[in-house]
């Protein structure tokens, strides 16, 4: 409630600066009812806004046909998410640009993981048109810079895992594959001093020459 009061106070102050001596009871009621004219985003639908940006980028050859179609598909799924989780604002599957928050996107990521069973790479791909639209909305003054900054940091950082064949040496023991590689090196190495060092330091208890 306090956050909403602060937001409305800020909007009223901004409106008063742009329209001196024009704040009336109707204007105040408009802000309280979140009417489009009273909003920073002018009541612009986020999905519509994103699709417009995709169309513009495609028309100017900034993106290819496949990225354009994938972007539209991603936004269709985003609308499904809004409807399924009842997080739409003025309609069940729609939300204003200014209502986009990091918390909403965090919920969207969880939904795609748990309900859609998407991989992190797929989810990151689906976030691309959303993040680009939020960045543009911020540039247009339709979204708070602090909110956009947090949204831009919403991509999932994928962990790099090594396969069994590429497992790191833990400093204590070798895998069978690593041992075989070392023994093969010992047999083929032509440097006497290097072979001696390998025998003494790597496997001091194993009779290497007998392997």
From TrEMBL:
UniProt key word DNA-binding: yes
What Gene3D superfamilies does UniProt report for this protein, alphabetically? 1.10.150.130
Q: Which residue range or ranges hold the Phage integrase SAM-like domain?
A: 60-145
Q: Which UniProt keywords apply?
A: DNA-binding
Q: Which domain of life is it from?
A: Bacteria
Q: What is this protein called?
A: Phage integrase SAM-like domain-containing protein
| Species of provenance | Bacteroides gallinaceum
């Amino acid at each position: 409630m306090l956050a909403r009061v602060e937001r409305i106070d800020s909007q009223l102050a901004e409106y008063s600066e742009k329209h001196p001596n024009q704040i009336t009871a109707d204007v105040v009621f408009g802000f309280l009812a979140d009417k489009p004219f009273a909003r920073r985003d002018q009541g612009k639908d986020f999905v519509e806004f994103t699709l417009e940006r995709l169309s513009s980028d495609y028309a100017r050859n900034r993106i290819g046909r496949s990225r354009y179609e994938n972007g539209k598909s991603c936004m269709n799924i985003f609308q499904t998410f809004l409807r399924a989780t009842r997080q739409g604002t003025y309609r069940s599957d729609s939300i204003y640009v200014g209502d986009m928050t990091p918390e909403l996107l965090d919920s969207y990521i969880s939904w795609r993981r748990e309900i859609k069973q998407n991989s992190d790479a797929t989810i990151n791909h689906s976030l691309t048109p959303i993040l680009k639209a939020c960045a543009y909305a911020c540039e247009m003054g339709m979204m708070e810079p602090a909110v956009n900054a947090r949204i831009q940091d919403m991509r999932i950082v994928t962990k790099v895992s090594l396969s069994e064949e590429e497992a790191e040496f833990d400093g204590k023991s070798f895998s069978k594959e690593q041992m075989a590689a070392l023994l093969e090196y010992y047999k083929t190495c032509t440097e006497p001093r290097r072979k001696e060092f390998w025998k003494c330091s790597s496997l001091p208890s194993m009779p290497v020459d007998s392997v």
